[in-house]
């Protein structure tokens, strides 16, 4: 009963779930399909399109094809621009400048950047979708390896894999968090993180169908977010201190009082718009 909402959400993303209780892995569509058709995607127009046919029996069908094809091709161009923009983020940040550079890399007019209503947010959300797809692919290809680990080790491994995807952009990630925290972007950010947490739990073999479904995802969301913030201040080689922090948080995950307190500190930091509150947030976690 408690899973029905999540199932409807994932069904709309084209993510059927396997029925095996021992290997419950989410199957996502390929990223291009996810971006083009997901009603939750904000990076490109999500309006559905009529399937095209190679032959037509009348002029009406030909006209319909003529109006649909340019829109589909334009969506493809938008996705290509966003993908090509990511390497420029390291130098230019999550910015319109990075998107313009990406457009030039793929031979598209920079004017296409004007088609994104929330330019910087579209780039961050594209990256989040891309990372979710890559994590899903990793889970699918590592099923046997994950089964050999105990649940806490599975969670630690999957959270680390996901956070390592952000490592190349770590100097610019505070900007991404600030963009996600803007009121107009919060709904999409929340949905993307909810899907991420759910994917990690399913990858860890969770098959909960009662109230624990919510508790587990709330706890994991707190663990993921506090580790993500810690990573921003970690100067250790290869983020080894971050992974030790993550391991300890997962081991302490059944101490709900402590985890909820850390999540409260995170909410306060995000509510303050990150910025100068970041250092104070990290100190608050350790004072607890």
UniProtKB/TrEMBL annotation:
Chain intervals for the UniProt region annotation (Disordered): 45-66
* Bias type Low complexity, positions: 51-63
Entry's InterPro entries? COQ9_C (IPR013718), Ubiq_biosynth_COQ9 (IPR012762)
Q: What does UniProt give as GO cellular component?
A: mitochondrial inner membrane
Instruction: Name all COQ9 C-terminal domain ranges.
Output: 186-255
Location(s), subcellular: Mitochondrion
Query: Which pathway, metabolic or otherwise, does it act in?
Result: Cofactor biosynthesis; ubiquinone biosynthesis
Q: Which GO terms describe its molecular function?
A: lipid binding
Q: Which UniProt keywords apply?
A: Lipid-binding, Mitochondrion, Transit peptide, Ubiquinone, Ubiquinone biosynthesis
Per the UniProt entry, what is one GO biological process?
A: ubiquinone biosynthetic process
**Functional description taken from the UniProt entry:** Membrane-associated protein that warps the membrane surface to access and bind aromatic isoprenes with high specificity, including ubiquinone (CoQ) isoprene intermediates and presents them directly to Coq7, therefore facilitating the Coq7-mediated hydroxylase step. Participates in the biosynthesis of coenzyme Q, also named ubiquinone, an essential lipid-soluble electron transporter for aerobic cellular respiration.
Name the family: Belongs to the COQ9 family.
What name does UniProt use for this protein? Ubiquinone biosynthesis protein
Q: Which organism is it from?
A: Rosa chinensis (China rose)
Q: List the lineage, top down.
A: Eukaryota, Viridiplantae, Streptophyta, Embryophyta, Tracheophyta
């Amino acid at each position: 009963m408690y899973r029905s909402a999540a199932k409807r959400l994932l069904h709309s993303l084209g993510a059927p779930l396997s029925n095996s209780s021992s290997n419950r892995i989410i199957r996502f569509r390929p990223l291009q399909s996810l971006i083009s058709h997901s009603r939750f995607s904000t990076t490109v127009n999500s309006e559905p399109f009529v399937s095209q046919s190679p032959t037509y029996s009348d002029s009406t069908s030909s006209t319909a094809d003529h109006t649909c094809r340019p829109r589909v091709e334009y969506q493809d161009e938008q996705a290509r621009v966003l993908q090509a923009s990511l390497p420029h983020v390291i130098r230019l940040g999550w910015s319109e400048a990075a998107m313009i550079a990406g457009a030039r890399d793929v031979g598209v007019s920079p004017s296409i950047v004007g088609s994104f209503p929330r330019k910087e947010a579209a780039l961050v959300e594209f990256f989040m979708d891309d990372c979710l797809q890559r994590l899903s692919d990793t889970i699918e290809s590592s099923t046997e390896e994950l089964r050999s680990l105990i649940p806490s080790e599975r969670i630690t491994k999957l959270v680390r894999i996901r956070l390592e995807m952000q490592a190349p952009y770590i100097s610019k990630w505070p900007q991404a968090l600030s963009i996600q925290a803007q009121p107009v972007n919060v709904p999409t950010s929340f949905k993307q993180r909810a899907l991420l947490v759910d994917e990690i739990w399913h990858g860890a073999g969770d098959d909960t169908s009662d109230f624990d479904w919510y508790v587990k995802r709330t706890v994991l969301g707190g663990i993921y977010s506090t580790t993500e913030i810690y990573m921003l201040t970690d100067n250790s080689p290869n983020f080894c201190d971050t992974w030790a922090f993550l391991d300890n948080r997962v081991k302490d995950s059944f101490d709900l009082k402590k985890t909820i307190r850390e999540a409260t500190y995170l909410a306060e930091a995000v509510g303050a718009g990150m910025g100068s509150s970041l250092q104070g947030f990290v100190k608050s976690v350790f004072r607890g």
